[in-house]
Amino acid sequence: MAIRVPGIMHAKQILRQSSLFANKPSSTSSMGVPKGYVAVYVGESERKRFVVPISFLRQPLFQELLSKAEEEFGYNYPTGRLTIPCTEDIFVDLTSRLNRLM
């Protein structure tokens, strides 16, 4: 089994960037995110907050979403939040599949 180091490094960089903004005041607090989880915002126009296990960041399907986020936003998220540019339906379907794998 091969380890995709670039994917893991990509995920770590995104988390590091989003944690830089964690101390900034915002309308949505970082409170309520349990240890071992990360909050992500999903949607094309209106964004909805989801809390997912950090273990998802290692999964190839989730890494594809992170790559899309990188293409659209780079590492500088305008709101300081990790935002996934896909529909809520696609995200729920993907996370459901990942939950079944774990």
From TrEMBL:
InterPro entries: SAUR_fam. GO terms for biological process: response to auxin. Pfam families: Auxin_inducible. Belongs to the ARG7 family. PANTHER family: SAUR-LIKE AUXIN-RESPONSIVE PROTEIN FAMILY-RELATED. This is Putative small auxin-up RNA. It comes from Rosa chinensis (China rose).
